[in-house]
Amino acid sequence: MLRYALLLLLSCSILNAQRIYGKVVGITDGDTFKLLEKDSILHKVRVANIDCPERRQPFSNRAKQFTSDAIFSKEIRIEVINKDRYGRLVAHVIYDRAYQLSAELVKNGYAWNYDKYSDDEILIDLENIARKKKVGLWSDPSPIPPWEWRKGRRE
Question: What does DSSP say about strands 42-47 and 89-95: parallel, antiparallel, or unpaired?
Answer without folding.
Answer: parallel
